[in-house]
Each structure stands twice: as structure tokens, then as C-alpha cells.
Specification:
Layout: E1 9-12, E2 15-18, E3 23-26, E4 29-31, H1 35-46, E5 51-53, H2 54-61, H3 70-85, E6 95-98, E7 102-105, H4 128-139, H5 157-161, E8 167-168, E9 173-177, E10 188-191, E11 195-196, H6 204-219, E12 225-226, H7 229-232, H8 242-249, E13 253-262, E14 265-274, E15 279-289, H9 293-307, H10 314-321, H11 328-341, H12 346-362, H13 367-378, H14 385-402, H15 407-419, H16 424-437, H17 442-454, H18 460-470, H19 480-485, H20 489-502, H21 507-519, H22 523-536, H23 541-553, H24 557-570, H25 578-587, H26 591-604, H27 625-634
Parallel strand pairs: 10-12, 10-13, 11-13
Antiparallel strand pairs: 1-2, 2-3, 3-4, 5-7, 6-7, 8-9, 9-15, 13-14, 14-15
Length: 638
Amino acid sequence: MPTSAGSARIRFEAFEIDLRSGELRKHGLKIKLHQQPFQVLTMLLEHPGEVVTREELQRRLWPSETFVDFDVGLNSAIKKLREALHESAEHPRFIETLPRRGYRFIGTVDGVPPAETRSPLRAPAPGEANLAPLEQKKLGASATTKWRWMLWSFAAAAALLALGFLLVTAGKWRETNLRTATPIHIHSIAVLPLENLTGDPSQEYFVDGMTDALITDLAQVSSLKVISRTSVMRYRGTQKPLPEIGKELNVDGIIEGAVIRAGDRVRVDTQLIEVGSDRHLWANTYERNLGDVIALQNEIARAVANQVQARLTPQEQAHLLSEDSVDPQTYELYLKARYFWGKRDENSIRKSVDYFQQAIQRSPNYAPAYAGLAEAYAVKFDVAPQEQYSAAKSAARRALEIDDDLAEAHNALAASLFWYDWDWAGAEKEFQRALALNPNYAQAHQWYGQLQKALGRRNWSDEVLRAGELDPLSILPSGVGWYRESGQYDLALGLIRKKLELYPNAPSLYAELGEIYARKRMYQDAIASSQKSVTLSAGEPVYLSGLARVYAISGKRKEALQIIEQLTVLSKRRYISSVQIAEIYAALNETDLAFRWLDRALGEHSPALVYLKSPTVLETLHSDPRYAELERRVGLPL
């Protein structure tokens, strides 16, 4: 076997691993591989053709103080390693499994680690584990070090000195600072979905919750731009290079990591990468009890803010230094609620409401659960507005009684004041408070923009476009409403078609297409797109009413009236806004019937009435004196 004395790279077929940078490449392109699978591969390559037993792997990578189940951890690492190498256990090209014994690297290897970086397959001698960190503090960190996830053995401490690895045993955390003298220029960050290394798919809700919490904590740092959860979740399990992801999200830095949970112990591994240079700047591992998970999340966010040299206000510093504890079972229920809330479909919203309520029943003073419940009710459109927004306001106000610094609660309260109470000043105050607490809150920017649009302010699109910057991969493109209202239909179509590449089955996008095609008098395309929105949504009323409007505009009166009958029947089982039916009658030029249904909508306090001043809403009625009177009764500025 050919060898390279002193080589830091090992090649096998099209693959190459770099021991100094901790990277695996294929044909020169970097392959995403977390550090525990990487360390398993390194150990197998150090002894090609030899059996590396499970016991030897455990001693080196899973020492006795590690709380993670060894079998689960090793099986997960081998699985991810095979995925990266594109091989199966049944037909291995590189890694042979020897049942109940261990593993053997069977590929042809070119280049082996130099003798000084190879470690014997034995447990560390007494005292070795305590010496390595002290020696390393003297040596400092290497500029080319890649972080080493989950390496719990100290047998290879001598080799890791050159890689700048630091382990502080007493606190059960370790940190690798990979920064060099080169200035760090990170003003925007995306937190990619943390990886679930528990080996249990049922824990996805927990891992997603940890991702969400880290995003929320960082988003409160006003000097940072932080991409929203909706956009980053599109990258779950992606193999895209980080620079490509950074370009798509328009950020300077990316955080990625993994979560392992065993019982009430949680460990989170994180690393920070500078997108432009693909430099790995910092890595850390945190471990705490589940009851202290909020303090853990704040600690991670604080460390990231420090690494990117973010300017923190005193309030932001106080938040990130908080050490709040939470009942573990309450937090479990809360994370399940957030998990379903993030899906945003009607059934998932109902589930999120149920879990938020369970969390509140268990811990009546847990403010985040009330805030989450308020947000869930704010988008729960299958109930009457009075029920929906009364529940949202009640939950939001209870959350703020407990903790006035919850941006989510202020946002939900603002939504209720805006869409139901028609209290423009109160809503604006609450939106502004939410954004002061969390300047990166995409949903608050979006809803605040809607308030400004409802009030006829010309700059309403500024907030909506800001929401688009923070959530670039959200389903609805942020500029569509502006282009539609200004008559720039082709630009609107271009934005929607780009989104359809990401969300080919999104009914809302096809509904928008139908609306714009109808305005361009492309009636056949308008009907086809609107019909598809109904099919994809399984007949949701909002899409049925959109199809009816398109039928009416296209001259298909009979079909439009049939849908009105459908909606009337459906309204006996669930809430359907009277504005939806009024819009169909307006498109049919049935003016009196349209105003009759608008009067009903007024009695309902239908949220859709806030948009009466929009030039594309009920435009055939604008010249009727009854329309101005309706605007006055809603309280819109004349």
C-alpha cells in the first residue's frame, strides 16, 4: 500500500479526507459529514484492513462519562457515514460490518496518517485526560482547525493539540476557537436545522424546537440580521455547499450543529462558518439538564453574538444572560406545540393549540405557552372572528402580564387589535413593541406592513419587503402584492413562478396565479390555476371563493353561482367570511347583493374588511356611495 510520510490527507477512490481541516471531499467537492462519523472514519482509516472493535470505538469516542447511549450513537454514525460514501451495509465498498465484533475498512487507501497523529487502540492511561487541555492552552489554536464534534476520548489528545481542541471536563462543554487575525465580517446569520443525532425520528419536534429557540434568541440581537425559521427549514438534510446556501439566503455566516438527547440530558454541538471564505470560526458543545435548556439556548446565542462581535444593548445582554428554568414536561409540550405551529396547515394549527393548552394546564405561569397560543389563535381561520381574536387577545394579555418582553405576545395582540378590533393606533403600538424586542421578526414585519396597507400608507411595502429579506424562502413572495396593485402583472408572475420551483404544490401560489391571469384577461389560464388551488387545498373555502371570482370575471356566471351555494352550505359547519361571497357578487356585477353581504361582514367584524382601501379589493364597488360609508363604519381614514 502506498504511503505518504507525514501526510495529513488520506485518499480512497474518489474520496479524500483532510485530517487538519476535518473535511471529507469527493472529486474535490466537500461533503457534509458531522464530526462523530468523521472520527469513526478516521479511526478505521488509521488501521486499514484491520478489525476495529466496537469496544475500541467506545473507549476512544464514547468514554464512560458520555451520557449518550453508545449503540445508538455508533449505529447513527455508521449510517451517516455510509450515506456520505453512497454505499450500503449489504454491498459495502469501504466499510465492512463484522456482526457483534466491529468494522473494517476494506477499500484501497492512498496515504495514511503520520505516526505522530495515529493513536493506539487502547484506553488512555490514568492522568492523560487531565493533561491534554493544559498543554493545549499553551499551544493555542491552529488557523486551519476544523471543529471536532463529539470526540470524547483523550487518547488522541496529542494529535488534537495541533488541531486546537479544548475540553473543559468539569462543565461538560468544550470549545474550539478557530478565529485568526483576519477580521470577521458577519452581520447576517442563518441557523440551519440542527441535526437529530438521537437515532429516534420521534424526537424531530425536540430538535426543531432547539433550532427555533436559537433563531429566536439571536433574532433579538438588533445588530444582526437573522433569517427566519420558515426559510432555513428548507435546508433540512441538504447536501448543498454552505457558500451556496449563504448566497441563496444572502447571509455572511451560517450556524450548523446537532442535538443529542438522552432522558433529561441534552447536548448541543454548534459551529459557526463564515460563508465568503468557508472558514470555520468557532465550535462548541453544551450539555445540560432539560430543565435548564433555556439557559443552554441563551448561552449558545451569547457565544455566537460574541464570536461575530455583535453590538448588544443592555436589554439584549440581560436577556442572553438569563438562567430561567422550566418544568421539563411543560417544555416538551411547548416544543410539540411549536413544531405543529411551524407547519401552518389547518390541522397542524389545531394540534398546536391543543399542546399549548396542555402546557398551560401543567404550568399556568409559563408565559411562552400563552404567547404561542395567542399566535396560533391569530391564524386559526376556521372559527368566527369573535371567538378567534378574543381567545388570541386573552392569551396574549396573560402572557404579557407574566413577561412583558415576549415579542410573540405583542405581535399576536397587535394582530387582534388590527384585524378584529380595528384599533389602528393600538395595533401599531403593539407591532412596534414586538419589532423593538425582535427586529428580525419576519411575521411581525409582514403584519405591520398589512396594517400600513390597510391605512392607505404608501410605504407599506417597506415592511413587507423587509419580511421577505428575513424570510426569503417563504411561500408567498413579498413583492407580489405591490406589483399586483401597481398593475405590474408580469413582474408578479415572475416572482410566483420562481416560488413554484420551491413549492410546486402550494395552493396559495396557484390562487395568486389565477388572480393575476384574470387581470391580464388570460381567462383559460386563470381558471386552470384557480382550479388547481382548489384541488391542492382539498376544497378550502378561501380557494373556492377565489375560483368563483375568476369564473365571474371570465363570464362563467353559472359556475360562480354554484360555488356560492357550496360556500353557503359550508358556512353552516365552519366560519366563512361574508366578504368572500360579497366579492363574488361584486365580480358578477350584482351590486346590491354584494353590499348586502358586506353588511353581514360588518356585523361579523370580518378581518377582510380592513382592506377596503386596497385598489384591487371590490374595485367595481368603489364608485358607489355605500362603499365610502362602509369605510367610515370600519374606521378607515378617508
